Amino acid sequence: MSATDVESAPLRLPTIDGGVKIGHVHLKVADLQRALDFYCGVLGFTLTTRYPGAAFISAGGYHHHIGLNTWESKGGSPPPPGTTGLFHTAILYPTRPLLADALRRLIVAKIPLDGASDHGVSEALYLRDPDENGVELYWDRPKDQWPSNADGSLKMFTHPLDLHNLLAELDR
User: How does pLDDT run across 48-107, given as a tens digit for each residue?
Assistant: First the structure.
């Protein structure tokens, strides 16, 4: 085997432990207060720590789920289409009524949606934060309700999400 063969061979290591979770995301923003107004004011996160040029926010008292900073981006513009970077940050809500509350918050704040989908395993709202970072707000259906193919494999899809039906969760 030559050095070229070794370099091109895919690395095959054991899969990552199922207990591993993504702890937080850290976003570069152009205007820290504007980002806080969106993430805390509209979505309802809590500010846990603030430094010059950075802030850390969370839900439920965790040290931080989202970091926001202007260290390399103050006054900057979003990356242009067709470049690499973050597609979206996905924020998991524990229940469908809490996702409905998130939709209500967006409506009150006049934040437009880019889309809303039922994926079979989850229901999701897609939008942009003030810095044009993609944001997905979603909830997972219980695993025993996930759709499957005839062979037992997971069957995901993208169907339109009925927003009126989702908002009806607030009246139940």
Answer: 999 999 999 999 999 999 999 999 999 999 989 899 988 999 999 999 999 999 999 999
Residue type, 130: P
The amino acid present at 106, given as its one-letter code, is: L
pTM here is 0.89
The radius of gyration of the chain's CA atoms, rounded to the nearest angstrom, is 19
Q: What is the count of structural domains for the chain?
A: 2
Does 133 reside within a domain?
yes
CA gap 132, 144 in Å, rounded: 35
Please say whether the beta carbons of 160 and 119 come within 8 A: no
Alpha-carbon distance of 107 to 110, in angstroms, equals 5
Q: Domain of 105?
A: 88-172
In the prediction, which pLDDT does 9 show? 73
Cα gap 97→27, rounded to integer Å: 27
Label residue 112 left, alpha or beta by phi (over 0 means left) and psi (-120 to 50 means alpha): beta
Q: What distance in Å separates the CA atoms of residue 126 and residue 146, rounded to the nearest whole number? A: 21
